[in-house]
Amino acid sequence: MTRIVVVTSGKGGVGKTTTSAAFSSGLALRGKKTAVIDFDVGLRNLDLIMGCERRVVYDFVNVIHGEANLTQALIKDKHCDNLFVLPASQTRDKDALTEEGVEKVLKDMADMGFDYIVCDSPAGIEHGAVMALTFADEAVIVTNPEVSSVRDSDRILGILQSKSRRAREGREAVKEHLVVTRYSPKRAAEGEMLSHGDVQEILRIPVLGVIPESEIVLQASNQGTPAIHMEGSDVAQAYEDVVARFLGEERPLRFVDYEKPGLLKRLFGGK
Amino acid sequence: MSLLSLIFGQKQKTASIAKERLQLIIARERGSSSAPDFLPALQQELVAVISKYVRVNPEDIKVQLEKQDNYEVLEVNIVLPEQRP
């Protein structure tokens, strides 16, 4: 059975594409046959984050219009054997994504034996974002611990609960997960930033993971490597935890507590 | 943290202000998002129709939608002015 997972947020720039890239790579590293689709028609970026921008020949809209087939359009990831990227069209209008077209492509991918299809949603609550969440079985809501991001996440949750196929057909609701990104344990401890607990309490969905604010994310995107491959970094480990929890493992949250540096550390420095 | 603020008690942390503001606005938006957009227009048209026959103030007509379990109840409340003999 193929599971369709939408990565969405409402607000832009909170880490949807970073999370889609790391999450889909993590699933593939766990042996799941995974595809990740960029739904951001006109503002394609997943290809850059995945490092496959020079290998794009056909895109999602070409497949919908029958101008290319899936095997031609799917790009095999350079890090993981069982991961494939379907880039968005850079030139078409966003209305090129029709509900019937998207449904057919997803169905054909299910027939190809994918375990997971990750849909990287565009920002906003317009057509592209709605198309990305329409067929979802599960949703990963990416939220920064900041007022506008939390409010927009609540809004997109409302849309998920009214416009997804599962909601419209009265089936079992889309399973919702919260991923808090750009988290600073220090600032949260000092009361300058909403804590992950605050965000969870406001949005009322279970936390799948907390990703610390880190310069690693920029280094990863600079070189087109999903952040989960940045070996030894806190971000990579936090994303590994996200994937493990998603697959049903129980893992305690890491990188969320702040320890005040002791006297020795303050005197002699060190990280 | 300055000495003064230590003596006179700490100012409220900004994160807790953010949390309170979010809880209020989200509760309000969740409540209103289920109401259909046509309510204000419906209210205006009702005022127009009723004003043809009775003199009423626009504020005396209230239209609201309430949810009770699986039912939605559209409540229209019209306060007629007192009849003068």
TrEMBL record, chain A:
Protein purpose: ATPase required for the correct placement of the division site. Cell division inhibitors MinC and MinD act in concert to form an inhibitor capable of blocking formation of the polar Z ring septums. Rapidly oscillates between the poles of the cell to destabilize FtsZ filaments that have formed before they mature into polar Z rings.
InterPro entries in the cross-refs: AAA_dom, MinD, MinD_FleN, P-loop_NTPase, ParA/MinD_ATPase
Residues where ATP binds: K11, G12, G13, V14, G15, K16, T17, T18
An example Gene Ontology molecular-function term: ATP hydrolysis activity
Subunit note: Interacts with MinC and FtsZ.
Biological process annotations from GO: division septum assembly; negative regulation of cell division
Protein name as annotated: Septum site-determining protein MinD
UniProt organism field: Methyloversatilis universalis (strain ATCC BAA-1314 / DSM 25237 / JCM 13912 / CCUG 52030 / FAM5)
Lineage: Bacteria, Pseudomonadati, Pseudomonadota, Betaproteobacteria, Nitrosomonadales
Keyword entries, A-Z: ATP-binding, Cell cycle, Cell division, Nucleotide-binding, Septation
Family: Belongs to the ParA family. MinD subfamily.
Automatic annotation (TrEMBL), chain B:
Domain of life assignment: Bacteria
Coiled-coil portions: none
Metal-binding is among the record's keywords: no
SUPFAM superfamilies to which the protein is assigned, alphabetical: Cell division protein MinE topological specificity domain
Keyword Cell cycle belongs to the record: yes
GO biological process, one term: regulation of division septum assembly
GO MF, one example: identical protein binding
Keyword annotations from UniProtKB, A to Z: Cell cycle, Cell division
Function (record text): Prevents the cell division inhibition by proteins MinC and MinD at internal division sites while permitting inhibition at polar sites. This ensures cell division at the proper site by restricting the formation of a division septum at the midpoint of the long axis of the cell.
Similarity-based family: Belongs to the MinE family.
Protein name: Cell division topological specificity factor
